[in-house]
Amino acid sequence: MTRVLVVDDHPVLRDGVRAALVAASLDIVGEAASAADAVRLAVELRPDVVLLDLQLPDFSGIEAARRIARDAPDAAVLAFTMSDDDETVFAALRAGAIGYVVKGVESRELVHAIETVAHGDALFLGPGLARRVLAHFTATRAAASAPRVTNPVLEAARLTDRETEVLELMAAGWGNAEISQRLYLAPKTVRNNVSTILGKLQASSRGEAVVWARAQGLGGASP
């Protein structure tokens, strides 16, 4: 059963989300109304998914996503907000979100989004949102392959065979512990590989690296 931490400062909305997720047999392990509590509970409860509003009273959900990606890296952050402008969307991805859902979607769509990111897949729900994100990463890939680009944002060609293996499993939704077992590597070695991959791809977070890897067709390995 997918374990979910729901973060939103509006009690009525949390009530509605809770009812929809419970009806779909998802496990609500906690709720938070602030960014600070979101980070604390993500670390304490280790949910599979953090459903995260980006407009919170103490500090932004973008910063909360960044801290969760750092302190609870196995939790998939799913941004859940009213805003669908490109600046907010890509800020969330850079901070570590693996999915983005614009409020107003149907309950079944929200449940599908949660289950999707819980398995490590990127998902974007909102008017034209998936198309815009795909266009962004397609343009990024084209820029990275252009001969005049001297500092491409993402340089996958520089990955070693081992780093490529690790990235493939990251894109498939595997956590560090699972990657360690699959590849017979020490946990510290996996953490070091992940850090190196982020540096080589110039990705600011695990989530950004995963989204890019999925756009390249990686992530076919089954847990």
From TrEMBL:
Residues bearing 4-aspartylphosphate?
A: 53
CDD domains given in the database record: LuxR_C_like, REC_NarL-like
Q: Where is the HTH luxR-type domain?
A: 152-217
A GO BP term here is: phosphorelay signal transduction system
Q: Name one GO molecular function term.
A: DNA binding
- Chain coiled-coil ranges: none
> This protein's superkingdom?
Bacteria
Q: Response regulatory domain: from which residue to which, for each copy? A: 3-118
Instruction: Enumerate the UniProt keywords alphabetically.
Output: DNA-binding, Phosphoprotein
Q: What is this protein called?
A: Two component transcriptional regulator, LuxR family
**Organism annotation:** Xylanimonas cellulosilytica (strain DSM 15894 / JCM 12276 / CECT 5975 / KCTC 9989 / LMG 20990 / NBRC 107835 / XIL07)
